[in-house]
Amino acid sequence: MYPNTLLISRDTRESNTPVYLNVPETWDSYIEPERDYAPHGSYYLKIINVPDLELVYSLTIPASLSPYTFYINNKYIGYYGKRTLNPKTPSESARPMTYHFSLQPGENELIISGFHMNEHVPGGLTSSLTFGDSYSLEKLKWYDIIVQIIVCAFIVFYFLCGILLFAIGINRSTIAYFLLSIVSVFITVILSNDKLLLWHVKIDWLSATKIWHFACVMALFWFILFFSELTRKYVKAKILNIAALCCFAYLIFIAVMPVSFIYYTKFIFYALLIGSSMMLAMFMYKIAFRKHKGYVLLLLAATAVIHHWLFLITNYLVAKPYPFDLLIAITALLAFWFIDYFYQSSTSKQTAIQLQQEMYRKDDFLANTSQELRTPLQHMLSITQSLLAKKEQHDLRLLVTIGQHMSFMLDSLLDLIHLKEQSITLQMKPVDVKHIATSVSDILKLTINSKPIELIVDLPEDLPPVLADENRLLQVFINLLHNAIKFTDEGSITIHAQTTGSMLSLSITDTGIGIEQSKQASIFEPYEQMNNTAHVGLGLGLSISKEIIELHGGSIRVISSIGEGATFIFSLPIARGLTIKRSESTTEQSQALSKYIFLQNDLSEIEQEIAASATEQLSVANHASILLVDADPLSLQVLLKALTTEFYKIDTATNGVDALAKIQERNFDLVISDTTLPQLSGYELAKHIRQQFSISELPILFLTTRQQSEDIRLAFLNGANDYVKKPIEYIELKSRVDALIQVKQSSEERLRFEAAWLQAQIQPHFFFNTLNAIISLYGEDNEKMEELLFAFNDYLQMSFNFENVDLLVPLDYELKLVRSYMAIEQIRFGDRIQMIWDIPNDVAFSVPPLVLQTLVENAVRHGILNRPEGGTIILRITEHSEHYLIEIIDNGIGFNTRLIDKKDSVGLFNTEQRLKQLFGVTLTIDSVVGKGTTISFPVPKKYN
């Protein structure tokens, strides 16, 4: 080798001194660095050719030297890369190149003149040259290339399979990691060995180096995530996450740092590759030794992974054919994955069979339970009905209604079981659909008295009869119409029909809340309900109706949009050429409807009794007032019975909107609400209440069937004071009700005593100033002194009056206190205080004690007396249609209303709190700096 020399001919060789190297070997120790030139040198090789051999020879120059120029016997053969002496010129990324040539008999001179443009790697021919006849060399070359192409083809095949599995939706996270690791491996393959990518794409050395290192670490990163996801059932090791995090950090490092830093930290690169490979192999061996399904494949994959990365590292030093180990590792892991997937699928099928058996056992249990419950339940109903003519008739009727409700649920459970077992026999005959629909509609109208719903039967007179079991058809109409009523708060429910070929198509359309598109396919499943906690039940009606209709040879579907109602459309076969026996039909229909009529009549009576009971309770005076809110009339009746013995004043509401309206109309000491309400849920009701009342001003007790901690936390977050779980225990309910009522009454009592205490603590300067005014008038104006003494006496007596702790006092009593106070102040300050009383003579109502006196005193002290000339106060009362408006107006100094905080004034804050508790109103303050202030509040007439 000739250092720092570019050989072209024999002359240049003879003028320089050579050194002898064993290729592969770096030339760095022989090259003297030059400032203006890149390191360069020439390799010289003498080849002696046997004269009788006339072969075409080939030489493969590895990628370690670039750029270079190749000569044979001073004849130019070829070159690779940009030939330049400028050390700053970036070189192309080299790839192995093969050159073909002929040799002359005897001695032949081979010269390779090259540059070292990459300062980060050893210079010179650091990889072996391959020399031989063209046929053998090409055969070896294409063997390596074909092996790499085969590996790439398999990778592409696996990638396409992964895309297909991802589209199907099988373990998408695992598939995604696999696909990303496959792409990264593909990049490393086409940039390794023969560097297939560089055959078609020109990439400079810096970019190719970064891409290759990035792809290697990226493949490892996604492979770790893929392995972690694949084996998470078997291994839960945090070290896998740590390894993935380290790979991710090094990926960022490779992306942002120069290539020189990548070579300086090459040990990190090798540590990640070897360490992570060993770790993955260790976990594979660990899983394999547990003898899981496909453990032999894991052993094979682990061994192949270790071999691949070791080969990748040693391949820089030793030239070897490209191994199949990476392909073997991927194939083994995929095989393990599929074996595990099919094993899990088999396990899932067995689990499904077991669940199906459990469902059958559950159905048997329900059937047996229903039969066992029916007998004692029927005995209970019979005995109770026999006592209805005697004492406690109302309570016994309530028991009968509850029993009938239970019996109805048991019938539904039995029907569902019989339908599943296909043990129901239909009594098919011609049935008048219009007669059935009209009869059911007339009965159900009794249940919608409390809802503004119109039930319309829009069926033509010439409607053909259908071939059906009359009792089962009756059951279908009851279920569908009852469902429509339950989910419709106002509007209409309409029954239509039209003939379609041999089928009669019937539709029931409501204007209710509607059904989500995603729920429409599942609402016909047993026990399926919409996510609407305001309407509870077993969820069997629609399922039973669907089964019955399909037994008749028809079908049922639903069309609905949220907020626009729902339409249930079902079809039944028309009875061609058959007539209806009216008398028989009427008798069977009466028997089928008897139980349902009894139940609905009783529910209607219960609703009326609830209203009557609530009205009776409201007549009880001087007791705590409670609002009961529950959508179930039976639950309301039970609550009324539980609380009647305590003589509370009780009002009821069946939905959140009505409850809010009642709270605005009158004062309550406690709200007891179910969490599942129509129109406005219990949680939403509590939110609205808390916007007006604090937890001490109006306590809320929730009744809930949900006992999860999340539901309880939600109740408290929405403003509940306490909760009681259903079914309710009387002692627990009474204890919690009493405790919460005491909270409310204690809050009211505190405000009343606080107001009285504030009034009783007459400010010392006011007391002494009044006495000084009396003394100063003695002997000079005895008449005015006497007037002041009488006014001061009245003021003191009323300030210490025990009526000040009452909830309400007559308006005249409050005005008398204000007149006494103003008389004292007018005598003391003379013309500085003017008072105008704008009050109608015939007005009479009650107000909280000390309210007017506090507001008038505030106007005097903080309003007109702060002006040297004083001012005028107007006390005005005007009557409106629903309330009296009280205004205290002064032309004092005024203030900026944006800066006022009512809590800074104890008197104003106390006054407003009592007005809010008693009347649900607040103080309105309007003030202009320098012009005066107006404080007003309404007194609703409904409280007087």
TrEMBL record:
The modification 4-aspartylphosphate is found at residue 674. Pfam families: HATPase_c (PF02518), His_kinase (PF06580), Response_reg (PF00072). Its main location: membrane. The keyword Membrane applies. Keywords: ATP-binding, Cell membrane, Kinase, Membrane, Nucleotide-binding, Phosphoprotein, Transferase, Transmembrane, Transmembrane helix, Two-component regulatory system. GO terms for molecular function: ATP binding; phosphorelay sensor kinase activity. Residues 625-741 form the Response regulatory domain. It comes from the Bacteria. This is histidine kinase.
